[in-house]
Design brief:
single chain; alpha/beta; Rossmann fold; 29% strand; globular; disordered N terminus
């Protein structure tokens, strides 16, 4: 059973959040006055078509981009008031990222790719421990070219969680994978959430994945069009797509 938002600490709180991009004389409104709260330890799936604002929101939550107006708090820190240096420190201490493409260094082993993060983190776990959490303890000395797509994505997850982030932001983490491999990756993300209590947000175009979430946020035209709470989270192994 998923946790009910409000019982646990609120990790993110957005009020009137907007993001406008300008291209010549054309203004593109990526976020339009969005209000949102995310609780600690939640697994939240973000659904919606391309251009609906999902990735823009994740980028602002992750400190990769600035909002145009409104507020976004991480605990008691208003991220919209931080400069680039402050956002860099926030990302380094609190946020792990997983993207559709793995962005591993080809010349480094799985162990070495994870170690890149642990060298700059304040209280990292050992690379062996991070790789064991995603089931790759037997593949630590393999290079990316020697790993399957799903294994490479799990190395990317291990790299993201090795610094013990409070929040894991995942943008289409199964987008380049077949269903069997995608389920293994989702299992890894849910395992991290269960074992480390990492608040996890997952952007996906695959509506099937919403069953594993505590809540599902549907996006349209830069706003949250619907919020659905799952009474019980499904196991990744139950998913079919």
């Amino acid at each position: 059973m998923g946790q009910t938002p409000g019982i646990l600490e609120t990790v993110f709180r957005a009020r009137g959040l907007t993001k406008t991009y300008t291209s010549g004389d054309v203004a593109v409104h990526a976020l339009r006055g969005l209000d949102l709260e995310i609780a600690a330890r939640e697994v939240v799936v973000l659904l919606g078509p391309s251009g609906s604002g999902k990735s823009t929101l994740l980028n602002i939550m992750g400190g990769l981009d600035h909002a145009t107006s409104g507020s976004l708090f991480f605990r008691d820190v208003d991220l919209t008031n931080l400069d680039d240096r402050g956002l860099t420190a926030y990302r380094r201490r609190h946020v792990g990222f997983v993207f559709q493409f793995y962005n591993l260094v080809p010349s480094l082993t799985a162990y070495e790719n994870v170690a890149l993060v642990t060298e700059i983190a304040e209280h990292p776990m050992h690379p062996d421990e991070a790789l064991a959490l995603v089931g790759l303890e037997s593949r630590i000395d393999h290079f990316p070219a020697q790993l399957s797509g799903g294994e490479q994505q799990r190395v990317a997850i291990a790299r993201a969680i090795a610094k013990r982030p409070d929040v894991l932001l995942c943008d289409e983490p199964t987008g380049a994978l077949d269903s069997k491999t995608g389920i293994i990756v989702i299992e890894a993300l849910l395992g991290i959430n269960a074992q480390l209590g990492t608040t996890t947000l997952i952007i996906t175009h695959n509506a099937t994945i919403q069953g594993v979430a505590d809540r599902v946020l549907s996006f349209a035209d830069g706003q949250i069009s619907a919020i659905h709470k799952n009474e019980a989270r499904r196991a990744a192994a139950e998913l079919i797509w």
